[in-house]
Design brief:
By secondary structure, the protein is α+β, with helices and mostly antiparallel strands. The protein has a domain of 93 residues: Cupredoxins -  blue copper proteins (Immunoglobulin-like). It contains 2 helices and 9 strands.
Length: 145
């Protein structure tokens, strides 16, 4: 009977780790500047990380052909001609992970020219770390019996 209570407690902690909202203290909003280089069929860098409320400025330079940049969820878009640099600014007022993609057909692999804008903390990472620690604790408890 005692063993079943331990498993119930471990299961309860696991549900708390999975479902509880994570409120991390974030910095005050600041201006974030990124220079993206677009070439067939990628962006460099392909991942941008900002905090909610940050004012994001992206400079896009097309290296080979005309490329665009559209950020899902923010209704912003720019286009850059080869060798030219264009700029767009917006406030990252939504938390989550958003894709940015090329908005100008630039070749056969165009649909795969995407990047990621991460606004806020990576809660999936912290939940996975919590579950891993819980699994280790369960394993140690099981081996101790």
């Amino acid at each position: 009977m005692k063993r079943s209570w331990v498993w119930i407690i471990l299961l309860a902690f696991g549900l708390v780790v999975l479902l509880a909202p994570i409120q991390l203290v974030l910095a005050q909003p600041v201006d974030r500047f990124f220079h993206l280089e677009a070439s067939q069929f990628s962006y460099q860098p392909s991942v941008l990380r900002v905090n909610p409320g940050d004012r994001v400025t992206i400079e896009l330079t097309a290296k080979d052909v005309v490329h665009g940049l559209a950020v899902d969820g923010f209704n912003v878009e720019i286009t850059s001609d080869p060798g030219q640099t264009d700029r767009l600014s917006f406030v990252a007022d939504k938390s989550g992970v958003f894709r940015f993609r090329c908005s100008v057909t630039c070749g056969s692999m165009h649909p795969f020219m995407i990047g990621k804008l991460q606004v806020g903390a990576n809660s999936l990472y912290w939940r996975a770390a919590g579950l891993a620690l819980l699994a280790i604790a369960a394993g140690i408890w099981k081996l101790g019996k």
